[in-house]
Amino acid sequence: MTTRRILAAALVLAGCGGSVTNGPAPTAVLTLTASPNPVVGGLCGSDCGNLEGERQALTDLTIRETAGVGVHLTGGSQVLRDNATGAVMNMSGFIPSIFIRDAGTARIPASGQLVFPTGIHYPAVHAGATATFTFTIEAIDDNGHAVSVTLAVPTTG
């Protein structure tokens, strides 16, 4: 009789839980902010090496994951474009080793964030130009989804 009661209880409990569905795995959601925003460019400092007279625009990007799924940063880009002419003043790409070098890791845990200091040099001829500094960050989340986020930051200098 005990075996029947256990079996009956198991059947009742299974029925109470409803059916288990395996829906699609959640996808990470990234947000991106810059500080300072807007960015003001200036003369290159001693960290610029032999780029005398060149200018640089610097900012810290905060990359946040908001959907509870961790990500590995895989790449991205930054483009500084003159607003008046549309000319690209300079551009460069990001690879995982750059995130590791400048931020200590290329991983953002679920619901976590990473502060990534970045900057770009540009020719002195663009001094004082009103520009847009556009960043794109790309990642693969822990469920295999490709995700990205883009931010455009007003820039002068």
Please sum up the structure shown:
With 157 residues, the chain is mostly beta strands. Helix content is 15%, strand content 48%.
Give structural notes:
The chain is elongated, with a radius of gyration of 24 Å. Strands 2, 5, 6, 7, 9 and 10 form a six-stranded mixed beta sheet that branches. Strands 1, 3, 4 and 8 form a four-stranded antiparallel beta sheet that branches. It has a single domain (23-156), classed as Immunoglobulin-like, CATH 2.60.40.1470. Helices cover 15% and strands 48% of the residues. It is built from two helices and ten strands; from the N terminus they run αββββββαββββ. It starts with a helix and ends with a strand. It has helices spanning 2-16, 96-103; strands at 30-35, 39-40, 42-43, 55-65, 71-82, 88-94, 107-108, 113-122, 130-141, 146-156.
Provide the succession of SSEs.
HEEEEEEHEEEE
Rg, alpha carbons = 24 Å
Please indicate the count of domains. Answer: 1
Number of helices: 2
> Looking at CATH, which topology would you report?
Immunoglobulin-like
Could you say what the CATH architecture is? Sandwich
Number of strands: 10
Q: Give me the secondary-structure category.
A: mainly beta
The whole-number mean of residue pLDDT values reads 90
Strand content: over 45%
CATH C-level category: Mainly Beta
Major sheet attributes: 6 strands, mixed
Shape: elongated
Helix percent band? 10-25%
